[in-house]
Design a protein that fits this description.
It comes from Salix viminalis. Keywords: Repeat. PPR repeats lie at residues 101-135, 136-170, 171-205, 206-240, 241-275, 276-310. This is Pentacotripeptide-repeat region of PRORP domain-containing protein. 69% of the residues lie in helices and 0% in strands. The radius of gyration is 25 Å and the shape is elongated. Helix 7 runs parallel beside helix 9 (172-184) and helix 13 (242-254) runs parallel beside helix 15. It has 3 domains: 1-131, no CATH class; 136-238, Serine Threonine Protein Phosphatase 5, Tetratricopeptide repeat (Alpha Horseshoe), CATH 1.25.40.10; 240-328, Serine Threonine Protein Phosphatase 5, Tetratricopeptide repeat (Alpha Horseshoe). It has helices at residues 2-20, 48-60, 67-79, 83-95, 102-114, 118-130, 137-149, 153-165, 172-184, 188-200, 207-219, 223-235, 242-254, 258-270, 277-289, 293-305, 312-324. It is mainly alpha-helical. The chain has 17 helices and no strands.
């Protein structure tokens, strides 16, 4: 079933591939790192074995399918998160005389970054430039994200600056990636500067970007800074979500400022947001941390009332809290 579906899609997309060879510039191609076409259909397989079998069939097919068709298969395997397999298949393609095109290279950049081999990703990036093509914002952001994952924030920031210098305008996602990376290496103050830059450029400041900074300040023990960003969100027209509240609550509890955490919890309820089991686990842990297991137990009783199910973390935290106080 998967084989016939893939075959029909490859045939249909090959027609579109011919249209693409009529001189359209790279920037106008509707592709990103997933190599999708104007059609919403994508090649898909139920498992990796089906994909590999189909790949082998493509290699012996006469006439052989186009590079575009092979890219569709590579993209499908990439969506299965089999990034190492994609690299191996791309090598086999070249050995069998199937030349890589720029979209193959974009797929490889994505895979190398997921494999934590950003250095290989940049090597492929160089091949794209040598062919006279200009990588788009999506491809550049993939490399930025890879650098951020490795904690190489100086290189990540430089790449974003290079994007701007080449005439590309980074979008909200690119900036969110940089903001998240900066916060993870203890540079929340610098990340705030990028929030301001996003606002100047007219980018939508979503809750994800704000939450990265809130979490960044909390990781540094600067919960007051986190609270300030939390409040700024509303003044900028954004709306708090449960994740924002959970992050701030965790920051207060880790600093043993549990009374303030409970006040934030009350704010959350007044906003009409429904707490999750993570919310309760965070507060229970905070109360136990400051030697108030009975208050934690009282809060524990609210979990079932809210239709939630306590987790093993809930029980173990509460038990540890009572044991610490000698209440066995």
């Amino acid at each position: 079933m998967a084989m016939s579906r893939a075959t029909s899609l490859l045939t249909k997309n090959s027609i579109f591939h011919l249209q693409q060879q009529m001189g359209m510039p790279f920037s106008s191609f509707p592709f990103s790192t997933t190599c999708s076409s104007r059609s919403t259909d994508k090649v898909s397989f139920s498992n990796i074995d089906d994909a590999l079998a189909f790949f082998n069939d493509m290699l012996i097919k006469n006439p052989r399918p186009s590079t575009y068709d092979f890219n569709q298969l590579l993209s499908a395997v990439m969506r299965m998160k089999k990034h190492g397999t994609v690299v191996s298949l791309s090598e086999e393609m070249e050995l069998r005389g199937v030349k890589h095109n720029v979209f193959t290279l974009i797929i490889l950049i994505n895979c190398f970054c997921h494999l934590n081999r950003v250095d290989f990703g940049f090597s492929v990036w160089g091949k794209i430039l040598k062919r006279g093509f200009e990588p788009d914002v999506v491809t550049s952001t993939t490399l930025v994200n890879g650098l951020c994952i490795q904690g190489k924030m100086g290189e990540a920031v430089k790449l974003v600056d290079d994007m701007v210098a080449r005439g590309h305008r980074p979008g909200a996602y690119t900036y969110s990636v940089v903001i998240n990376g900066l916060c993870k290496v203890g540079k929340a103050d610098v990340a705030v500067g990028y929030l301001e830059e996003m606002e100047k450029l007219g980018c939508v400041l979503d809750t994800v970007a704000y939450n990265s900074v809130i979490e960044g300040y909390c990781l540094q023990g600067k919960v007051d800074g986190a609270r300030e960003i939390f409040d700024v969100m509303v003044s900028k027209g954004s709306t708090h979500d449960v994740c924002n509240y959970n992050t701030l609550l965790n920051g207060y509890c880790k600093m043993e400022r549990v009374d303030e955490a409970m006040q934030v919890f009350d704010e959350m309820l007044r906003e009409g947001l429904v707490p999750t089991v993570v919310t309760y686990n965070t507060l229970i842990k905070g109360l136990c941390l400051v030697g108030r297991p009975w208050a934690a137990h009282q809060l524990f009783g609210n979990i079932s009332t809210c239709g939630l199910t306590p987790t093993i973390i809930t029980y173990s935290t509460l038990i540890d809290g009572f044991c610490e106080q000698g209440n066995l």
